[in-house]
Design brief:
Elements: E1 13-17, H1 26-36, E2 41-45, E3 52-57, E4 60-65, E5 75-80, E6 87-92, E7 97-103, E8 108-114, H2 123-140
Parallel strand pairs: 1-2
Antiparallel strand pairs: 2-5, 3-4, 4-5, 6-7, 7-8
C-alpha cells in the first residue's frame, strides 16, 4: 500500500460583499455558507454593523468594524476556529481598507481587504480613494 503524505494545514481564502449583516440571522447564515465552501479566512465588505469587535458564530470568529452612520460600508474577517490562534493582528485602516496578519509556518501572511468604490460613484470619491490606497500601501512596505 502506498501512502501519500498529507498536508498538515491547507487553507482557503476568499472575499465577499455580503451587502449587509445587519439583518437578524444573516451572520449565522454567512458562517454556514463559509463552512460549506470550506474557507479558512474570508474578508467581507458591507457589514453595516455598529461598533467594532469580535463575535463567535458557528466554526468562525468574526472580527468587524463599523462603517458610517448610515449603516453602510464596514468590513470584517471570518476566521475559522482552527486558524484563530494564528491571528497576530487585525487592523481597520479606513472605511474601505483593512488587513489581518496571520503567523505562518515560515512567514507572516498578510491578507488585505479593500472595498473600492463602484463605477457609479462620483469621480472625486474614486480619485481620493485610490490616492489614499496608494499612500497607505506605501506605508506597508
Amino acid at each position: 500500500m502506498v501512502r501519500t503524505k498529507q498536508r498538515k494545514w491547507d487553507m482557503r481564502f476568499g472575499t465577499w460583499e455580503v451587502r449587509s449583516l445587519y439583518r437578524v440571522g444573516s451572520l449565522t447564515a454567512a458562517a454556514r455558507e463559509l463552512a460549506r465552501c470550506k474557507l479558512g479566512l474570508e474578508g467581507v465588505q458591507e457589514v453595516s454593523w455598529e461598533k467594532r469587535g469580535k463575535v463567535r458564530t458557528g466554526d468562525y470568529n468574526f472580527f468587524f468594524r463599523k462603517g458610517n452612520e448610515d449603516h453602510q460600508l464596514g468590513r470584517g474577517f471570518f476566521v475559522r476556529d482552527r486558524t484563530v490562534s494564528a491571528v497576530k493582528r487585525v487592523e481597520f485602516v479606513s472605511d474601505r481598507m483593512s488587513y489581518i496578519v496571520l503567523r505562518g509556518r515560515w512567514c507572516y501572511i498578510f491578507f488585505l481587504n479593500v472595498h473600492a468604490p463602484s463605477e457609479e460613484k462620483i469621480n472625486d470619491k474614486k480619485d481620493s480613494f485610490y490616492e489614499k490606497l496608494e499612500q497607505d500601501s506605501l506605508s506597508f512596505s
